Task: inverse folding
């Protein structure tokens, strides 16, 4: 059973590629961002706590994140794409422990590389629809109306240029050491993310076909 960790800085296109990969390889896409946003949207006490952490630009505590993920993974009978987790070496270690408990293992770790200026540009151009939740990229002229449902588009708090820079700083400090952790496993591969989404997808598929 294929279980993938999809890595990359904010704005690298992990969500886009995960959506393509789950269809191509019959996998379940688990986006930690989606999991956390769903909890926040529920209005629960846990959701309010998570919102405060994220709005400060910080990472959700490991124990909290892994407990939420384990519930989802244990109820899933197909391979999984982990998108947005792990972000630290400690998280990578607890993920390995969790997978062993569930009698699974990570089969591939794919890093999508992207230059920093491209990252900030991509994040700053993102808008989300208040009505349907669709996440879109707008051009230099901007945009206020969702082309899917005509709802209002807005900039999420963590998608401003200043917050994007902070997220990159956190990423470089905490997440890049995970690269070294996985390089030692022999399952790590890097993909050039500064291409069209279709070309990035093609490159990832080439890698995954070898580990199926």
Result:
């Amino acid at each position: 059973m294929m279980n993938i960790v999809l890595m990359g800085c904010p704005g690298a296109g992990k969500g886009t590629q995960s959506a393509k990969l789950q269809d191509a390889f019959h996998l379940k896409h688990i986006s930690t961002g989606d999991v956390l946003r769903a909890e926040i949207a529920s209005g629960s006490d846990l959701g309010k706590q998570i919102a405060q952490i994220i709005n400060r630009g910080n990472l959700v505590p490991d124990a909290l994140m892994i407990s939420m993920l384990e519930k989802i993974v244990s109820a899933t009978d197909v391979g999984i794409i982990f998108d947005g987790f792990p972000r630290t070496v400690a998280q990578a270690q607890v993920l390995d422990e969790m997978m062993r408990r569930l009698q699974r293992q990570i089969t591939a770790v794919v890093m999508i590389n992207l230059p920093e200026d491209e990252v900030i540009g991509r994040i700053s151009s993102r808008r989300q629809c208040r009505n349907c939740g669709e996440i879109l990229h707008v051009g230099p002229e901007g945009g206020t109306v969702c082309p899917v449902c005509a709802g209002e588009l807005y900039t999420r708090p963590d998608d401003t240029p200043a917050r994007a820079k902070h997220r990159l700083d956190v990423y470089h400090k905490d997440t890049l050491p995970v690269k070294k952790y996985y390089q030692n496993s022999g399952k790590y591969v890097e993909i050039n993310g500064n291409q069209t989404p279709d070309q990035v997808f093609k490159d990832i598929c080439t890698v995954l076909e070898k580990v199926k």
